[in-house]
Amino acid sequence: MGREIYVSPSDQSEDPESVTIRKLADGDAFTIPSGQFAFLLTEEIVEVPDDALGFISIKAKIKWRGLINVSGFHVDPGFKGRLIFSVYNAGPVPVHLRQGQPMFLLWLSSLDRPTKLGRKNAAQLSFPAELIPSISGELQSIAGINKKIKDVDKDLTSRIHAVEREQTYYRVIALILMLFVGAMVTNWVREGGLQQLLAASSTGLDQANDASVDPRVNSSGAIPSNAADSVSNSTEAGGGVK
Q: Where is the composition biased (Polar residues) (predicted)?
């Protein structure tokens, strides 16, 4: 492992757009989060002759952690410089690596003759300037999406529990009020409040009936003789009823 890396920002990054190439000192450690890409630069400078073809890979014990080489599997004839590995962490946990750690493999296969189509570029000693913008910015990984789903589920569950607690609180308050009102009504009935109410209602009804009866009618329901005579006398004095 060389001295330059670039790891795509995850949803934990404060400013994904500001993430850039990182320089490593001797033995510096770094991680590639689950579901993220990375560019890794080798420490060695490789020179492939025009009559050979290189094949690259990652050591098995690192691949078993979930780190996959997605940069291709060959090195062109005539290539000079440090190799760039594009990798993807397909595992469920971050992959921890360190500068100077042996992790890359290179095989050389001889061609039957030198090729005229070999690489003629200058030696590649660091990341090309156009390499990083292609994957800059936050990448939505499966692990990141899964975490967001879990966070939303946790928040929703918390809100549901809060609503349930609030409903329970209101139910308890309503039950206490009902018990209080019931106790007051029971006590009122026990103290004769209902009988008093019925008696008051009966008295009011009797008074209303008395007000609608002819004042000449006595308690037995008959009209006294003096009341009848007074009516007849008034009729005769007036010359009869018209």
A: 217-236
- How, if at all, do strands 46-47 and 80-81 pair? antiparallel
Q: Which domain holds residue 181?
A: 141-201
Considering the domain architecture, whether residues 145 and 171 belong to the same structural domain is answered as: yes
Buried b (16+ CB within 10 A) or exposed e, 75-90: bebbbebbbbbbbbbb
Taking only Cα atoms into account, the Rg of the chain, rounded to an integer number of angstroms, comes to 50
CB atoms within 10 A of CB 48: 20
* Tens digit of each residue's pLDDT (9 = 90 or more) over 118-150: 888 888 899 887 887 766 666 666 666 777 788
Q: Do 167 and 82 sit in the same domain of this protein?
A: no
Question: Tokens in use for 240?
Answer: 């009869």
pLDDT tens string 32-51: 988 888 999 999 999 999 99
| 161 occurs within a structural domain | yes
Q: Tokens 């026990």 label which residue?
A: 190
Say what the pTM is. Answer: 0.59
CATH number reported for the structural domain that contains residue 37 in this entry: 2.70.40.10
Task: Report yes or no: 77 and 52 within 8 Å, Cβ to Cβ.
Answer: yes
Burial class (CB in 10 A: 0-12, 13-18, 19+), 170: exposed
